UniProtKB/TrEMBL annotation:
Residues 49-206 form the Carbohydrate-binding domain. InterPro entries: Carb-bd_dom_fam9 (IPR010502), DUF5916 (IPR045670). Pfam families: CBM9_1, DUF5916. This is Uncharacterized protein.
Length: 846
């Protein structure tokens, strides 16, 4: 049933009605709680890390207790006491915690892999070693002894990809559980001051109540997190250690590719070696380097059929590029998948008459990557990143003579980033970022420079933020005599916002010029835009009636083409979610009304601003729920409908899109968990670009080569992911992940596009119906046999969707059967890495 105009009015009313009421409810800005202080005590003897806390030194240290609840009921004192003590010596910080409870059964302790919480209680310590109230560390442990760590920064938020080498032990004694941690100074950075002053907080999660508590109260209505920590005093006469470690690796692969070219081996083996180096240049700055890295064991990408005019953004799974990169993420100018990506000339390789393509690597070989980062005592963060990739070649063989020739697909390339980030008072900062890509030979180089800032008032209640970015490309397109010397562009943003309290709002304005392009080391889905938006939000943090919390969101946005200045889109958004008190069932919805849109990017023509696809006005509604994750069986569910208005100009059925997501999770016990993800969508009467891929049959399609050809189509997509995780111990786990993705496209009619957005029927007879299938399996056995040292065995199985026939196959199980029964690439690998710490080696020799 279509959404009516009165319903749209009600949605708009709901969007803005919360604002005045919320504003009246909170006239004063939210303020942070007073900062507590804790004294650390110097050790005179040794600590045995066993999770017992039976050494006399623990009894002599001051106790941090009286934690305050942060959720679900902010501000309430804890009922079950938590006691934390901090000790230190010349090498490490020691943390001991006693977490009282009512019975052993109340202490939930699911066994998971590192950095995974699961259905478990936990305890953690937060450290702001430079006391800048912006950047910090988190070290945590569960009752099962599972460790996790994270970094905090304005750019990266909470980054669990960061990993340090430290240790923890736990035990359960009666109705309480104990945690004992040893955090070497080599795992953190701090100044050479004779007396240290660090930001400090502790947190406890009691999963049975879904409650979280902090030692220094963290108010959800106050902007920021690190700025709400207390203080750790008493650490004297400790020196930042020489932080020098080497982690060499050896890996071996057996690969079987049944689609290898005739005359080449289908089963190949390889032996690789390299190392990661970490060196503390001084107390503030650290150099991380990876030499001849091997990323063959990372999780497979979720390949999809991309019908949009923009590229697919894939997640980064390579550890070197996921940890310690928060400085380089400032301004969103660094997309790490560009480093070691598909060679820029990969798709241009063509075998000539009487030749066959023997080899064309889809990934660029990375020779090395280095990053230097740190922050001075005055809050200046400095980051330098550099990576070098090798020249890449495709191999073409003469089928008669057997002679081979090589075609360069990517020249030797250097990737560089420099960042300066100055922390200011009141959770503010200013930053300068430069990214550069330099390629050898006759091809283009790229440079992007950006400045950004965030300035908050002294109450941390209002903020002004903005950025100015300039991009420049010089040279010629690789393999083509086409200059791009005129590609200089810019982007700027400016925003004003209320950032604290139950009621918040922000106003934003952005311009991206038609020649702005940061894509050589960043990612941008579309330039040539002028956008502006107004957002409001109201959050009820305190429980009331039968719910724990409630939140309303709303936004109005408008966009124009930058050059020429023409209308693109207008939308109104409203969202709501809440969590019920007893069942912890989370429910909510999102609804967005989009006025008639002029899509200037779908035609994919250089005449930008002249051709556009007219998208009728539509309303997009999605409802969702998530059940209580404490239960063995938990369920996530969402369903949506996007309904388009009837286009009176065309005698054509209405467009409509349906979507459904089902995400059950079954925890068999504390060691074994099954997960299943189903995502289904169907778009009926979608109108989209067709011209792509005409080279193979130019004779047939020649009348349409100089025209924008669109097709009205049905698109049905199904993604199934099944994963199993069995965790033997807190240092050993086995995971299996299988994914099958299929997308069917069936065309109903074809039209050519006129410059004014009008469509003309096209006598186009070529069938473009197709089906895209992607299938992969990732099985990983991981054993952390010593701190920082790991053995991993990985099996990867995948089809080659780009090489399949792609015949239109509408039935799902037919697709699944065809995909499983077609030839697959298989890889089995073993990788051993061993952590060598200079200080530990010197101590052993002594």
């Amino acid at each position: 049933m279509p959404f009516t105009a009165p319903l749209r009015f009600l949605l708009l009313l709901a969007l803005f009605s919360a604002g005045p009421a919320a504003s009246r409810a909170q006239t004063a800005p939210a303020t942070a709680a007073p900062k507590r202080q804790l004294q650390a005590v110097r050790l005179t003897g040794a600590i045995r890390l066993d999770g017992v806390l039976d050494e006399a030194a623990w009894q002599q240290a001051p106790v941090a207790s009286d934690f305050v609840q942060q959720r679900p009921n902010p501000g309430v004192p804890e009922r079950h006491r938590t006691e934390v003590r901090v000790l230190y010596d010349d090498a490490s910080l020691y943390v001991g915690a006693i977490l009282h409870d009512v019975s052993p059964d109340s202490i939930l302790r699911e066994m998971t892999a590192r950095d995974k919480f699961g259905n478990s209680d936990l305890f953690c310590i937060f450290l702001d070693t430079y006391h800048d109230q912006l950047n910090g560390y988190n070290f945590g442990v569960t009752p099962a002894g599972v460790q996790y760590d994270a970094r905090y920064s304005p750019a990266g938020g909470e980054d669990f990809n960061w990993n340090a080498v430290w240790d923890a032990r736990t035990s359960i004694r009666g109705t309480d559980w104990y945690a004992e941690m040893r955090i070497p100074y080599s795992a953190i950075r701090f100044s050479k001051a004779s007396e240290q002053l660090w930001g400090l907080n502790f947190a406890r999660q009691r999963k049975r109540d879904n409650a979280q508590f902090f030692w220094n109260e963290v108010k959800p209505a106050v902007n920021g997190f690190v700025n709400q920590w207390g203080e750790l005093r008493g650490i004297r006469d400790v020196q930042p250690p020489l932080r020098l470690s080497l982690t060499p690796y050896v890996s071996s692969y057996v690969n079987h590719n049944p689609l290898s070219a005739e005359g080449t081996r289908r089963t190949t083996t390889s032996l690789n070696g390299g190392a990661d180096v970490k060196w503390g240049i001084n107390e503030s700055f650290t150099l991380d380097a990876t030499l001849v890295p091997d990323f063959g064991q990372v999780q497979s990408d979720n390949q999809v059929l991309n019908l949009s005019p923009f590229e697919v953004q894939f997640a980064e799974n390579r550890q070197f590029f996921t940890e310690g990169t928060e400085l380089f993420s400032k301004g969103n100018l660094f997309y790490s998948r560009r480093v070691g990506a598909t060679p820029i000339g990969f798709y241009d390789v063509k075998a000539g008459p009487g030749e066959q393509l023997v080899r064309n690597p889809a990934e660029t070989q990375l020779l090395n990557a280095t990053k230097v980062s740190g922050r001075t005592r005055k809050g200046l963060g400095i980051g330098v990143f550099n990576a070098v990739s090798n020249s890449m070649y495709a191999t073409v063989r003469n089928t008669e003579t057997g002679a081979e020739r090589e075609l360069m697909t990517q020249p030797l390339s250097n990737y560089n980033i420099v960042v300066l980030d100055q922390s200011l008072k009141n959770n503010s900062y200013v930053s300068l970022i430069n990214t550069n890509v330099t390629r050898a030979g006759r091809t283009y180089d790229a440079n992007v420079t950006g400045g950004l800032f965030r300035l908050n008032d002294k109450h941390n209640a209002y903020g002004l933020d903005g950025s100015l970015v300039y991009s420049r490309r010089r040279g010629q397109v690789f393999g083509k005599n086409k200059s791009i010397n005129d590609q200089d562009g810019y982007k700027y943003t400016l925003g004003l916002s209320k950032i604290s309290g139950s009621f918040t709002w922000d106003v934003n304005h952005r311009i991206e010029s038609d020649t702005y392009n940061p894509n050589d080391l960043g990612i941008l889905f579309g330039n040539n835009n002028i956008t502006q938006s107004v957002s409001v939000a109201y959050r009820k943090y305190q429980p009331f009636w039968k719910v724990n919390n409630m939140a309303f969101f709303g936004q109005i946005g408008h966009s124009l083409l930058y050059k020429p200045a023409r209308y693109q889109s207008l939308y109104v958004y409203h969202g709501f979610n809440t969590t019920f008190t007893r069942s912890f069932l989370q429910v909510g919805y999102d609804v967005q009304y989009n006025a008639t849109t002029h899509d200037f990017f779908e035609p994919r023509t250089t005449s930008l601003g002249e051709y556009f696809v007219r998208v009728p006005a539509n309303t997009d509604f999605v409802a969702f729920l998530n059940s209580d994750t404490r239960k063995p069986l938990a369920l996530g569910l969402n369903a949506g409908i996007q309904h388009y208005a009837h286009d009176e100009r065309l005698d054509r059925p209405r467009r409509v899109r349906y979507s459904l997501g089902v995400y059950p999770r079954y925890r068999v016990n504390n060691h074994l968990t099954f997960r299943y993800n189903l995502d289904w969508s169907r778009s009926a009467h979608q109108l989209g670009y067709v011209n792509g891929g005409l080279d193979a049959e130019q004779a047939l399609d020649k009348p349409f080569l100089d025209k924008v050809l669109l097709g009205r189509r049905h698109v049905s997509t199904v993604s199934n992911v099944v994963s199993v995780a069995y965790t033997f111990t807190n240092r050993m786990s086995l995971t299996l992940r299988t994914r099958h993705y299929t997308s069917n496209v069936r065309y109903l009619e074809f039209v050519t596009l006129r410059p004014d957005g009008e469509e003309t029927p096209a006598d186009y007879r070529r069938s473009r119906d197709n089906t895209y299938n992607a299938f992969n399996v990732d099985a990983v056995y991981s054993w952390w046999f010593a701190p920082g040292s790991q053995i991993s065995i990985v099996w990867k199985n995948a089809n080659s969707p780009d090489l399949q026939a792609n015949e239109f196959t509408p039935l799902y199980f037919s697709n699944l059967s065809n995909t499983i029964n077609t030839p697959h690439n298989n890889s089995v690998s073993v990788k051993v890495l061993y952590y060598l710490d200079y200080l530990a080696l010197r101590k052993r020799r002594g």
